[in-house]
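Sharing a chain and its predicted structure for anyone who wants a worked example. Both blocks are below, sequence first, C-alpha cells second.
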Amino acid sequence: MTKAARVPPFIGTTRSRTPTGFHAAVFGAPHGTPYPGIDNRIHATAPDAFRLALEADGEWLDHWDFDLGGPLLADGACRIADLGNLPTKSKDGKGNRKLIETQTRKILSAGAVPLMFGGDDSTPIPFVAGFSGSAPLTILQIDAHIDWREERYGERLGFSSTMRRASEQAHVWRIVQAGARGLGSAREAEVRDAKQWGARIFTSRQIHHDGLGAVLETISPDADCLICLDCDALDISQMPAVAYPTPGGLSFVQVTDLIAGVADKARIAGFAMVEFVPKKDLDGTSAFTAARIAANVIGHIARQI
C-alpha cells in the first residue's frame, strides 16, 4: 500500500494493514483501466481528498449525526479499517485490476464489508469481480450514465463498460440503475441491451417527478446490495467536481435517502465511490459532500452488524 504521511484515515476508521478483526474496510483505488488518449490521473487523488474533507469530523464521533439519528458508529461496536491506497499505476490496467480484485477478496475473506474510493468508473469492474463466490449480488448503480458499452476505443474494461461487465458475472443477479440523464457513451443499442438483460433503469427526471419508491421496490428484502456511486449522479449545483457535470442530477438528500432505503430492507454488502475530480473542487465543498455520503454508508453498516 502507498503511504500518505499527513492524510488521516477516513472518518471513524482505524489505519490498518489488514482487514482482519474489522467489520468493514476502506481502501483507495486511484487508477483503473485506461482508455487511449484519456487521462485517468485526474481522479487519482480523490481517495485522499475524501479523507481530508472529514478530518475535523473525526473528532466528533460521539456527537449526534442527524442524517443517521444517532452517533455515526451507533453504539461504537463497529470497527472499520482504512487500508490506505493501492499502488495502482495510470497505464497499468491489468495490474490495477488485479490489485483491486485481490484487495476486495481479502476484505471479504476477513468477513468485512469492502468500501472502495476510486479512481475512474472502471475500478468497480474488478471490485465487483472480487465478490464472485459470495451470495448473489444486487447492484445499485447511482450514476448519470448507464455504462453498458461492449467496448470503447477498443477497450472492453474501461469506464463506459462497467455495468455490462457486471452483467456477465454469474454472482450478479440484479442491476438497478438510478440517476441517468443527459448524454453519455450509451447509444440506442446499449439502452436496449441493458433492458433486455433485465436492468431496471430510473432516470433522474423520473426520480424527481415520482420519488424514490419505485427504485427501492426493485431491491429485494434481505438482498446483498453493492452500491456503486458515480459522483456525477449528483446535480452540478452540489457536485461540480466531476469529469462531465450535467444539470438535472440527484440531490445529496436523494442519494442518502436511497442508501438509507437499501439499508432499511436489505444488507449493504459493499460500496464504491468514483469519478471525483479534485482539481475542479475549488472550495472543498464537493469533496465534503461526497465524503458525507460515504460517511452515511458507514453509519448504516454500523447499524447492520
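Comments welcome. The chain has a mean pLDDT of 96.
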